[in-house]
Amino acid sequence: MADRSAPVLLDFLNLPEREFVAGEGVIRSVTFVSPSEAPSFSAVIESADAPRPGRGPSIRLIWLGRRQIPGIGAGTLLRFAGMLSERHGEPTIYNPRYEILAKED
């Protein structure tokens, strides 16, 4: 991310194809894989200002080689960056850079 003091707010409704993107949002769900599968950790993130939380456009973030990431769970505010691709028709970023943001009081 170029300027950490002014985050780039990605438009979740108008995602580019196969480009480096950066933005921030709220983790709505996480997925754990069974111990018999290759390690990966997945989270679905959507815009923090989605009019209907849990039903807005989203991006899947996948970390390969990890079974969990401390601090990342449903409701976590996260800044992220990475190459946007598509997996099973869903916008996806593999191994994104991320920063867990503090919630405002």
**Strand content of the residues, in percent?**
35-45%
Give a quick account of the main beta sheet: strands, pairing sense, barrel closure. Answer: 5 strands, mixed, barrel
| Nearest-integer average pLDDT | 85
How many helices does DSSP assign?
0
- How many strand elements? 6
Helix percent reads: under 10%
The ordered string of helix (H) and strand (E) elements is EEEEEE
Shape: globular
Radius of gyration: 13 Å
| Contiguous runs where pLDDT drops below 50 for at least 5 residues | 1-8
Span between termini: 25 Å
Query: Based on helices, strands and strand pairing, what is the structural class?
Result: mainly beta
Q: Largest sheet, order of strands side by side?
A: 1-2-3-5-4
Q: Which secondary structure elements does this structure contain, and how are they paired or packed?
A:
Elements lengths: L19 E13 L7 E7 L11 E7 L12 E11 L2 E5 L2 E4 L5
How would you describe this structure to a colleague?
The protein is mostly beta strands and 105 residues long. The protein is 0% helix and 45% strand. The two termini are 25 Å apart.
Question: Features of this protein?
Answer:
105 residues, mainly beta, 45% strand
Briefly summarize what is shown.
This protein has 105 residues and is mainly β.
